[in-house]
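Structure first, sequence second, as always.
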């Protein structure tokens, strides 16, 4: 049994939006109804030759559209980025998989994860497979999930940030979009400007223009065809855009 891409994305959205078993299960159930993906053979190689057999094993899993395995590999890369695997990060991943699968299957994936954590994979290849089956809008949601792992201990380190940014570039997500996602996890002075995709030197007219552009691009109505949990995530992002604009307006006394 493997998890389909729709179920994976739906589950991530449900988990990210509600942090609850019900939300994740509902998202997974809705997303699974749209799973119609053809398999694609691809060879994932470990960056260490003595792991070639294990890499081939996981390659076979990935060629069967086992996106759970792909997600485990990306999760491991983020967790190992700062040279230490923390219990809070491991618990975050475990919780997600326990919410998506039966007790037996989640235990199997968690067991696999412990093995995956010991190996190094070529992330560009993993991301390439995901790119072939997942729209960029949904790939952005995976970046949010990876930020969630990094933030599980209360702080996203520079090394974790760099790995997530590299994965984001492999996903072909623009630097502006990446900064917007990143800003959802930070509340520094410049975060409100990053949400709108501009810097603090922008003029008032440029602020207004950026807000209108973002509001149109991310308006919830554009996501009405997706599942309930996806709509909630889209609404949340739209609210973040509005909050950022209102903060900047107040700070600058923009009418």
């Amino acid at each position: 049994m493997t998890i389909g891409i729709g179920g994976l994305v739906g589950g991530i959205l449900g988990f990210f939006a509600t942090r609850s078993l019900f939300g994740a299960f509902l998202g997974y159930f809705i997303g699974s109804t749209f799973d119609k993906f053809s398999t694609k053979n691809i060879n994932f190689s470990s960056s260490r030759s003595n792991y070639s057999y294990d890499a081939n094993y996981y390659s076979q899993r990935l060629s069967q559209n086992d996106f759970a395995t792909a997600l485990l590999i990306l999760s491991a890369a983020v967790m190992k980025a700062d040279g230490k695997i923390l219990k809070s990060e491991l618990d975050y991943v475990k919780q997600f998989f326990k919410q998506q699968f039966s007790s037996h299957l989640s235990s199997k994936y968690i067991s696999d994860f412990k093995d995956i954590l010991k190996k190094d994979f070529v992330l560009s290849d993993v991301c390439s497979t995901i790119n072939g089956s997942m729209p960029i809008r949904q790939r952005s949601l995976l970046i949010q999930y990876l930020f969630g792992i990094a933030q599980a201990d209360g702080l996203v380190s520079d090394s974790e940030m760099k790995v997530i940014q590299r994965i984001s570039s492999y996903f072909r997500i623009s630097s502006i979009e990446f900064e917007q996602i990143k800003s959802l996890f930070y509340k520094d002075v410049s975060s409100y400007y990053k949400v709108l995709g501009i810097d603090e030197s922008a003029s008032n007219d440029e602020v207004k223009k950026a807000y209108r552009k973002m509001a149109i691009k991310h308006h919830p109505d554009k996501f009405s065809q997706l599942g309930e949990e996806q709509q909630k995530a889209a609404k949340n992002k739209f609210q973040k855009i509005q909050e950022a604009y209102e903060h900047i307006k107040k700070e600058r006394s923009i009418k």
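Margin note: The radius of gyration is 19 Å.
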